[in-house]
Design brief:
about 270 residues, Phosphorylase Kinase, domain 1, single chain, about 45% helix
Length: about 270
């Protein structure tokens, strides 16, 4: 892709995010995202960036005087402009507003760390949600599509050195859809995908830096996350399911994983 094509693609993604495209335009964007994983990843990054800006930057209300001037200009007869007013030095609150706007521009250029340096937990959650969004946008949420855990487990095992816990949760209302490889940081990690009605749950397993005393819940970019540790491993589930149902999934998975360990032959 040339620089001109990359620039045009970024503008198209921005238009899609801002709701400026019609139905035909959005269909075209979705087709491009499905065909280009790199473009889909960039779109997911922009979605996450927009959410970060919305959460971390204050919303400033336009001053009453400015609102009154805009209304007066709109109501003035055609060809007649309101009398000019003397320009005053910007008040402190206006300077703060200008600073916020400049900061938003900097964020758009990729300088999110100007607000706060993300923690390792933030990095993990951002990667997990980005993978979930990519799967939804591409329409291919799994690399190996099967409900047979005895097929998914060896498929993942030959691609990732660490063991992967794969359990059957169909009886609990969470049938297995398949599995895929995601990347968190620079490491490939296994992700299982389960179904709940029309919703999907992506569960990623990776080494745990520290043990969690209890399952940890979070919300990022409109998606619910549930994290827990078990046996030195971190499990992170993301879905658009309500938190209560995601909790039920986590409980069912932990129960099934414990039962599987009990049944495993002792060596």
């Amino acid at each position: 892709m040339t620089d001109a094509q990359a620039s045009a693609a970024r503008l198209l993604l921005q238009a899609a995010l801002d709701g400026e495209l019609d139905a035909a335009g959005m269909i075209d964007v979705e087709a491009r995202l499905a065909a280009d994983p790199a473009l889909a990843a960039e779109y997911a990054r922009l979605v996450a960036l927009r959410g970060a800006i919305a959460r971390r930057l204050p919303r400033e209300r336009a001053p009453d005087a400015l609102r009154a001037r805009v209304v007066a200009m709109a109501q003035a007869p055609s060809g007649v402009s309101p009398a000019p007013r003397r320009a005053w030095p910007p008040a402190p609150r206006y300077r703060a507003l200008a600073a916020s706007l400049l900061l938003g521009v900097a964020l758009g250029a990729g300088a999110l760390d100007l607000i706060a340096s993300p923690s390792a937990d933030d990095d993990v959650q951002r990667a997990i949600v980005a993978g979930f969004i990519r799967g939804r946008l591409s329409g291919q949420s799994v690399d190996v599509a099967t409900s047979d855990r005895h097929t998914v487990k060896p498929w993942l095992a030959v691609r990732i050195a660490d063991a992967t816990t794969v359990v059957d949760l169909k009886a609990d209302g969470f049938p297995l859809v398949g599995g895929r490889i995601d990347v968190v940081g620079r490491a490939p990690v296994p992700t299982l995908v389960y179904q709940r009605r029309e919703h999907q749950i992506a569960l990623t397993e990776m080494p745990a830096e520290r043990a969690l005393a209890a399952p940890r819940r979070a919300t990022r970019d409109g998606y619910n996350l549930l994290e827990w540790t078990d046996g030195g491993r971190l499990y992170a589930a993301v879905s658009d399911l309500p938190p209560a149902e995601l909790d039920a999934f986590g409980e069912a998975f932990r129960r099934a994983a414990a039962a599987e360990r009990e049944e495993a032959p002792k060596t």
